[in-house]
Amino acid sequence: MPLPELSEASVALHVGVDDWREAIRVAGSLLSDTHATDAAYTQRMIDVVEEFGAYVVIAPGLALAHARPGADVHEDALVVATLAAPVRFGHPHNDPVSVVLGLAVTTAESHVGWVAEIANVFNDETAIPRLAAATTLDEVRAVFGASPLSIGDQA
Question: Which residues form a coiled coil (predicted)?
Fold first, then answer.
């Protein structure tokens, strides 16, 4: 299951936030603005962290914000938000976070496939610092293995 093409609408770079909830709201806004989810999905992503803790911080500096499939998810989607200044999610080892991925999936099966693909990207130890430093969509796409010449922006 290949990761989706990233468009301008699915990436926000160097966003200023005060805390982890705002960081998740940025990712959630990208998901809802691209019509992958309803706005309610953002609150569900926050609720996951409030209920289960900061397990969404999957590597040093990287959070994978997500919630279970539901009626508020219209299509599988991945978004990327980098933060102007890192924030703490409360993870004992992987805080602070400078990159937040927002993941919305329509089925449990697609969740497993997408998480595996995301893990492959972040097996490269340079991926998180490269994303955190990215200033263009092409730099973000390069981290995910996409050539800027081979992917056009999605509307």
Answer: none
